[in-house]
Amino acid sequence: MHETLNSMHPLVVFSFFVAIILAILLIAKGVYVVRQQTACVVERLGRFKRILLPGLNFIIPFIDRASRPVSLRIVQLDIKVDTKTEDNVFVKVPVAVQYQVNPAKVREAYYKLEDPQEQIESYVFDIVRAEVPRKTLDDLFLSKDDISEAVQDSLQKVMDEYGFIIRRSLITDITPDAKVAAAMNSINAAKRNREAAEHEAEAAKIKLVAAAAAEAESKKLQGEGTANQRKAIALGIAESVRILHESGVSEREANAILLATQFFDMQQSLGQNSKATTIFTPLTANGGGEALTAIMSALSAFSDFDRQENKKLD
To answer: How far is CA 43 from CA 60, 64, 93, in A?
Structure first.
């Protein structure tokens, strides 16, 4: 072959090498590799021809033109919408829209929209500002998921025509005006304080009722104990009088003896149990007799008074 090339005219040799180089360049120009999760639009002489899928592809050099890669991955677009509620509270509603190009509609996504993010943002503003003014601030916090679903459904119906799939539409937070938020916090704090005060008052009421019930029960038991004590004392006195009377002691003398006995028992009890440091007692030799005489006189006076009252009644 070397001898053949030497025997050929130099111009022919040069043309041969140029043809080989051009062929290699044409083959290289016609090979197009598309990466995973991307697609390319092929235009032939300015007109749409086909879609190149991931992998090795071939195009006609200088006639076909492959566009920049179109990503098929999910993209998140964060949008902040300023609007107001039904009760005239201005709020910021951040919306996160997750979308991607439909692999079956790459042509529509490439040709129909110049700026898909701006288009999505415009629709989100329109939908949110149509939904939020229908709700009060409290209802807005409760129906956040409903608004997210409304945004997603409306966007999907519109963007499907342009070759986009709306995967999710999330309202991540609702931020009212700073003054409104401070007022809401004050209202909630006052509400919690009132509930705490009500619970404390109820607890105090329960304690008072329980204490009153316990005191009433204590008084009742104390009264029953006093009554039983007096009943037992009365029965004991009656039994003592009966025994003295059977022993030949008159009723008057028996009563006097019992009164004197109780008087001296009282003095003994004072001396043993009382906190008093001084007790006055008769110091004369016949002090006990004088006390007994005084008791008898009192008993006699009481008997005379009782007889006079009975005559009046008769």
So the answer is: 10, 6, 42
DSSP secondary structure code for residue 48 in this structure: E
pLDDT (tens digit per residue) in 64-122:
888 888 889 999 999 998 888 888 888 888 999 999 999 999 999 888 888 888 989 99
Query: What gap in Å lies between CA 144 and CA 152, rounded to an integer?
Result: 13
Work out whether the CA dihedral 26, 28, 31, 37 comes out positive or negative: negative
Q: Which residue in the block uniquely carries the two structure tokens 């006390």?
A: 291
Among candidate residues 226, 204, 224, 206, the one with its CA nearest the CA of residue 214? 206
pTM for this entry: 0.52
Question: By C-alpha distance, which of 32, 43, 42, 110 is closest to 71?
Answer: 110
**Could you give the CA distance from residue 271 to residue 153 in angstroms, rounded to a whole number?**
98
Closest to 175 in 3D by CA, of 141, 130, 148: 141
Beta bridge partners of 170: 96
Query: Do the Cβ atoms of 263 and 228 come closer than 8 Å?
Result: no
Residue type, 39: A
Tell me the CA end-to-end span of the chain in Å, nearest whole number: 173
Return d(Cα 21, Cα 204) in angstroms, integer. 102
Within 13 Å of residue 175, how many CA atoms lie on the same side as its CB? 10
DSSP string, 65-83: EE-PPEE-S-EEEEEEEEE
Q: Residue 39 in 3-state DSSP? A: strand
Q: How many CB atoms lie within 10 A of CB 106?
A: 21
Kindly report the backbone phi and psi dihedral angles of residue 272, in degrees, each rounded to the nearest multiple of 5, phi listed first: -90, -40
- The two structure tokens encoding residue 133: 């003014």
d(CA 314, CA 304): 15
Q: What is the pLDDT of residues 242-286, one digit of tens each?
A: 776 666 666 666 666 666 666 666 666 666 665 656 665 654 545
Distance CA(178)–CA(186), nearest Å, equals 12
